[in-house]
């Protein structure tokens, strides 16, 4: 029979071993290609603000993080099912909160805007009645805020799985407006040629903050809590601000 004090020490050692084992594992972070946030370079390297943050987190926690870019809906599903540990960059919505556990603080901010063809006058004053009858494109699976979602139910909406397709359709005149964000759109515009220039118009549609998100299952809670603590430290010591400047990303703080 083990004495109570010795037994307690054995339990503590066992728990410590389990904690180390739980942390010393490979993690999978997924998402779709987001300019300046999560990108795969031609040399096979993953880059972006989200990757830089997670790489620093992995170093602190002594874990290995592997990355995978997939279609957005698939990436969300993988994390919802616990097949991946971290989802990079989702906007927080009530619908997503039902199946995902979001980090406490966002790590980037986007202005959602309409793009229109240069020289093609569109009256948009923030009132959705002003664009009734216009052909509007949006990205499949993106969140544009509750007002947009509600107000566009009765409008002519076309969905696209990638920004490039939406840009090309708008430029050709197959759309009148494209709802997107400048960060992703400007990156694609720099890589492709289009028949007619497009430009963002004001006012903005909404502001959306992007987060890291984790599976909802309780076993992933320690990972999320460790990330929250780590990210708070990054904000406090100024590292987060420096990274935001490096990647030219708008920060929420």
From TrEMBL:
Pfam families in UniProt: SBP_bac_3
The protein's name is: Transporter substrate-binding domain-containing protein
Name the keywords, alphabetized. Signal
PANTHER family xref list: ABC TRANSPORTER SUBSTRATE-BINDING PROTEIN (PTHR35936:SF25), MEMBRANE-BOUND LYTIC MUREIN TRANSGLYCOSYLASE F (PTHR35936)
Family statement: Belongs to the bacterial solute-binding protein 3 family.
SUPFAM superfamilies, per the entry? Periplasmic binding protein-like II
Q: What residues does the Solute-binding protein family 3/N-terminal domain cover? A: 27-251
The keyword Transport appears for this protein: no
Task: Please state the span of the N-terminal signal peptide per the UniProt entry.
Answer: 1-24
């Amino acid at each position: 029979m083990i004495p109570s004090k010795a037994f307690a020490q054995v339990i503590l050692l066992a728990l410590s071993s389990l904690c180390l084992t739980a942390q010393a594992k490979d993690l999978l972070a997924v998402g779709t290609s987001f300019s300046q946030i999560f990108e795969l370079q031609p040399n096979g390297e993953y880059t972006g603000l989200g990757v830089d943050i997670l790489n620093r987190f992995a170093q602190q926690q002594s874990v290995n993080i592997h990355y995978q870019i997939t279609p957005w809906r698939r990436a969300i599903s993988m994390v919802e099912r616990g097949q991946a540990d971290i989802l990079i960059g989702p906007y927080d919505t009530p619908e997503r909160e039902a199946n995902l556990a979001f980090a406490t603080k966002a790590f980037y901010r986007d202005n959602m805007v309409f793009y229109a063809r240069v020289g093609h006058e569109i009256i948009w004053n923030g009132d959705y009645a002003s664009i009734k009858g216009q052909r509007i494109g949006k990205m499949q699976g993106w969140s544009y805020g509750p007002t947009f979602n509600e107000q566009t139910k009765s409008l002519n909406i076309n969905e696209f799985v990638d920004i490039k397709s939406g840009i090309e359709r708008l430029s050709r005149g197959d759309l009148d407006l494209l709802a997107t964000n400048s960060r992703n759109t400007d990156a694609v515009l720099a890589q492709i040629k289009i028949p007619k220039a497009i430009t963002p118009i004001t006012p903005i549609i909404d502001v959306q903050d992007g987060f890291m998100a984790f599976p909802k299952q309780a076993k992933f809670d320690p990972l999320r809590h460790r990330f929250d603590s780590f990210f708070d430290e990054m904000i406090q010591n100024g590292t987060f601000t420096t990274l935001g400047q490096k990647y030219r990303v708008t920060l929420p703080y």
